[in-house]
Amino acid sequence: MTDHDVMDHGAADADLLLKKVSAFVRERVFPAEPDLDAGGPTARVLRERLRGEARESGLWALPLPAELGGGGLTLSAYAAIAEAEGASDHGPVALGSAPLLDVTMLSRHGSARVGTEYLPRLVSGDLRTCYAMTEPDTPGTVPSLTATRAERRSGGGWRVTGRKWFVSNAGDADLVTVLARTSGSAGDRTGLSLLLVPTESPGFRIVRELPILGATGQYEIEFDGVEVDEDHLVGDTGQALVVAGERLQLGRTLRALRWLGQAQRAFDLLCDRAAARQGTRGPLANHQLVQQHVFEALLALRTARPLVYEAMALVADGRDAHVEVGLAKTASARTLQDVADRAVQVFGAAGLGPDTPLPALFRTGRMARILDGPDEQHVSAVARRVLRSRQGSAVTPV
Questions:
Q1: Which residues have CB under 8 Å from 18's CB, separation 6+?
Q2: Which residue has the higher pLDDT, 344 or 396?
C-alpha cells in the first residue's frame, strides 16, 4: 500500500465517521429536542437512551483520550465532527464529547488523585462537570476582580466562600471548577487559583436557575465555607489565569464550531422553506428579496467557516491563537444570529412558533454575542494585538 493509498483510506474513514455523526444528530437528537429542552425526569431518561445509542453506534466520546475510554480523535480530526454535533445544543452531551474541556484541563493540570478518581468517570459519562468563573457583582470580562475567596485550612486544603452565576449545567453537575482568590487583593492578576469542588460538599448550593431569553440551563450557585482537599487544586496556586486562558482558547473555538453547525442548520431550513413554500406567484425561491436572504446567509457562512477552522488548527498545534480565536468567536456568533434571523424572516410567523428550531437557534445566536466574552471585548482585544505588532514599524499613509 502506498502513502497515497494510506491517506485516501484515512480520508475515507474520516468522511464516513462525519456522515455517521451527522445522521445520528439529525435522525435521533433533532426529534428529541423538545423533550430535552423541557428538562425533568423525562429528559434525563431520554438523554441516557441517546447516550446508550451513541455507544452502540461507536460514536461515543470521539475526541476524548482512548486510554480513558474515548475515541482518541485529535482536535484537528474532531473539528468537522464538532460542527456536526453542534447543530443541536444537545449533540455534544448525547455523543459524550461535552466534557472535552474539563478532561483536557484536568489531564494537564489535575493531581494524580483527580486523574484516577474522576477522569475515567467523566469520559464514561458517569460524572458531569461545570465551570464557575463569572460573578454577580463583578464584570465577567475582568477575572482579576473575582471576589470569591479560598482560604487555607489549618489542617490543609481550602475553604471556599463566594457566589457565581451564569454557570452552565450546574443543576445536575457532580463537580464544579471554581475560580477563587487565594492571595492578594482585587485587581491583582496573580493570586487567583482554580479548585475542583464536588457539588455534594456541605456549603454548596444552587441559588436559582437563570433562564436566558426563556431557555434553561444557566444557574447561580453559592459556596458557603465549602471545604476542598489540597489535591483538588487545578494547576499551581495563584496561576489560575494561565490555566483558564488555555481553556478559553479551546473552549471558544469549540463553541464557534458548534455555532457554525447551528448556522448551517438554519441555512438549510431557510433554503428548504424557500423552495417548498408556495405563494400567489409560485415558490418563495422566485422572489429576489428571498434570494438575497439566501445569498447573504451563504456569504456569512462561507466567510466565517475558514476563520473558525484556522483557529482550531492553531489551537490544536499549541500555537498562539488569540487573534484567530477572537475573530472566529465573533464571526461565528454573528453568523448564527444573522442566518437564523433570515430564516425566521423567510418562514414568517411559523418561524416564531414551536414547530421549528428557529427560535432556539436565534436565541443561541443572540446569547453567543455576549457569553464567552462580548463582541466588544474581542474586537478591542484583537485590534490591540494587531496594532501592538505594528508598533515601531514604518507605516506608509495611504
A1: 80, 81, 84
A2: 344
**CA–CA distance, 209 with 370 (Å, rounded to integer):** 18
**Alpha-carbon distance 70 to 302, whole Å?**
31
- What are 256's three cell numbers? 464557534
Rounded Cα gap, residues 145 and 202, in angstroms: 26
Instruction: Tell me the domain boundaries of the chain.
Output: 3-98, 129-238, 242-390
Q: Is the CATH number of domain 3-98 1.10.540.10?
A: yes
User: For 113-116, which contacts have Cβ atoms below 8 Å and span 24 or more sequence positions?
Assistant: 113/231, 114/196, 114/231, 114/232, 114/234
β-bridge partners, 205: 222
Strand 278-279 with 282-283, pairing: antiparallel
Question: What architecture is domain 242-390?
Answer: Up-down Bundle (1.20)
Where b means 16+ CB within 10 Å and e means fewer, 259-289 reads: bbbbbbbbbebbbebbeebeeeeeebeeeee
Q: Give residue for cell 471554581.
A: 178
Q: What pLDDT score does 279 carry?
A: 79
User: CA-CA distance, 133 to 148, in Å (whole number)?
Assistant: 9
The DSSP letter of residue 374 is: -
* Segment holding 381, helix H or strand E: helix 375-390
Report which DSSP code applies to 212. Answer: B
pLDDT at 4: 41
Domain 129-238: CATH superfamily is: Butyryl-CoA Dehydrogenase, subunit A, domain 2 (2.40.110.10)
Write the CA distances from 389 to 221, 281, 376, integer angstroms.
41, 56, 20
Q: CA-to-CA distance for 44 and 35, rounded, in angstroms?
A: 9
So what's the pLDDT on residue 396? Answer: 46
**What 8-state DSSP symbol labels residue 28?**
I
The cell for 358 is: 428557529
pLDDT digits (tens, 9 = 90+) for 178-200: 999 999 888 888 899 999 999 99
Instruction: Return the top range by mean pLDDT from 10-19, 141-150, 196-205, 239-248.
Output: 196-205
Overall average pLDDT of the 274-290 stretch: 90
Q: Which tens digit of pLDDT belongs to each residue from 124-135?
A: 999 999 999 999
Q: How far apart are CA 84 and CA 92, in angstroms?
A: 10
